Amino acid sequence: MAGPILVVDDDNFFRQLASDMLTRRGYRVVTAESAAQALVQVGRESFDLIITDVVMPEVDGFSLTAKLRERDPDQEVILVSQRTDVKGSSMALSVGVADCLTKPVEEADLRLAVERAMERAQLRRERTQLQTENFEFARYQNLHQRCLEFLSQPDLEWLQERVAAELASVCDAQSAALWVTDDRGHLVLRAYRGLLDKQFLAERMSPEGPLGNRLREAMPWIARDERSPVLYVPFVVSGDIMGMAQLSDPLAGDFRTEHVRYAKILGDSAAVGVKNGRRVQALQRLGLRDRDTAAYNLSYFTDYASKEIYKARRYGRTFSLLTFSVDNLPMVRTRLGMADAKLAVRGIIKALGRIVRDSDVIAKASDQEFFVLLPETDFFGAMMFVRRALDAVRAEPEAQEVESRLPLALVGGASAFPKDGEDFDELVHRCRQRMDERRASLQRKLMLDTLPFWDEVDLLLGNASSPKLPVEENAEPSRRGKVSDVLFDELQTEIARELMRDPGSRGLLYVGGPEIRSDLPIALGLESAPPDMASRIYMLGRRSDMESHPAVTPVFLEGDERMNRHEFILWMSENASYALIQRRGLGATWGFHSSDTAVVDGLITRLQAEYDLQPY
Question: pTM value?
Answer without folding.
Answer: 0.61
